[in-house]
Specification:
Blueprint (H helix, E strand, L loop, with lengths): L1 H23 L8 H19 L12 E6 L5 E7 L14 E6 L7 H18 L2 H8 L2 E6 L4 H4 L23 H13 L15 H13 L3 E6 L4 E5 L4 E2 L3 E2 H14 L15 H7 L5 E5 L8 H17 L51
Parallel strand pairs: 3-4, 3-5, 5-9
Antiparallel strand pairs: 1-2, 2-4, 6-9, 7-8
Helix pairs in contact: 3-10, 8-10
Zinc ion (ZN) binds next to loops.
């Protein structure tokens, strides 16, 4: 009887050991209950990929980090390329960090596939030590391919989120309280597609973007939209506090355009509550908005071919000033930097689709 018990005990121990190995190699092991949510999310992704005649997303092959949900309970997720094991240590500040976001506006279909193409490309790079050592040894890339899942997973995708808010007009920028609703009413006649919400920073999709930026302190942000056919830059134009080199950031803008057959560069105006305003203008983080030419899903492959080297070079391009430490992007006390050599457009455009949002009023350190 005793030996039978010990056999059962031994079997149980083996099972526990096996399970712990399984979970320790699973990146979602810390919160295993989230695995089901991510699995559902990935299946949903593939249903939509099929709808647009795209190849499989391979969504389930990435390690997702999932802390926060959308209004309708979809995971707001991101994946990391590069070694972030020293995230809490000073060495992390020396790394060159890029955040790439897509799907801020769910009716802009092409950017979502574009982010998955970037991820597939990066997976190959980061699986190859030789390539990493050559160009990407110090590079961390954070990709959030679908910032606004509720708007994309609908039968008829929309720009706004499930509460009817444009999540690129809801960042808590300094001008939000004064201008966001006033301009929406005066200039946009309460266009439902550009509703900034009743209060800044009210939407989980905005908090998600802000917290991603606060958590990783990126050296640059690339936000992908469509269909305005242009590259836009928001951020420092000169050296700011000896830390962020605006000249290098501009060099990169021009490089990206050249890499993509002289893609049009346009200086778009700031909007209250936009990502470019919150991250680029108010926090001096070089923020690039890439507007793909159309939202036509059949053009996705063509767009990835056009921008592949631009994205590669953008990630590899180090914007840090030599011998300087990373700027503290978490600070809320930075003075407002007036744009210098590059004039900011003065007119407000109805067709603006710029997609970046950051909001400093929340204090959570993760998404
Ligand atoms: Zn957009």
């Amino acid at each position: 009887m005793k030996s039978r018990h010990s056999k059962i005990l031994s079997l149980l121990q083996t099972a526990v050991c096996f399970l712990s190995i399984v979970f320790s190699t699973n990146s979602f092991s810390e919160v295993p209950k989230l695995t089901a949510a991510i699995n559902t999310f990935c299946k949903n992704m593939d249903v939509h990929f099929k709808k647009y005649n795209w190849d499989k997303s391979n969504c389930e092959k990435y390690d997702w980090i999932h802390v926060r949900n959308s209004v309708l309970g979809e995971p707001l997720t991101w994946t990391v390329f590069g070694d972030v094991s020293d995230e809490e240590k000073p060495t992390f500040k020396q790394k060159d960090i890029s955040i790439i976001m897509c799907g801020v506006h769910g009716d802009e279909i092409t950017p979502i596939k574009f982010c998955f193409d970037i991820m597939a490309y990066l997976k190959e790079i980061y699986d190859n030590p030789e390539v990493i050592n050559k160009e990407f040894s110090n590079k961390i890339v954070i990709v959030a391919p679908l910032v606004n899942p509720d708007s994309f997973f609908k039968a008829r995708p929309s720009r706004i989120n499930a509460r009817g808010v444009d999540v690129n007009r809801n960042f808590p920028t300094k001008d939000w309280a004064r201008d966001a609703r006033r301009l929406w009413i005066a200039n946009f006649r309460k266009d439902k597609r550009r509703n900034p919400g009743f209060a800044a920073n009210s939407e989980p999709e905005v908090i998600f973007q802000m917290n991603l930026i606060k958590r990783y302190g990126p050296d640059k942000i690339i936000s992908v939209h469509s269909p305005l056919t242009m590259l836009d830059y928001d951020g420092p134009n000169t050296i700011v506090g000896g830390l962020v080199n605006g000249a290098k950031a501009h060099e990169l803008l021009i490089q990206m355009s050249k890499d993509a057959s002289d893609y049009k560069i346009e200086n778009y105006p700031f909007f209250p509550g936009s990502l470019g305003n919150w991250a680029g203008k108010e926090r001096d983080i070089p923020t690039y908005t890439l507007e793909l030419p159309t939202s036509d899903p059949s053009k996705s492959e063509q767009y990835w071919k056009l921008f592949k080297s631009a994205i590669h070079n953008a990630i590899a391009h180090d914007l840090k000033e030599k011998n300087s430490e990373k700027i503290n992007v978490k600070s809320e006390e930075k003075p407002d930097i007036k744009t210098g050599s590059i004039p900011v457009g003065s007119t407000t455009r109805i067709e603006d689709n710029k997609a970046s949002d950051n909001d400093p009023s929340r204090t959570e350190s993760v998404n």
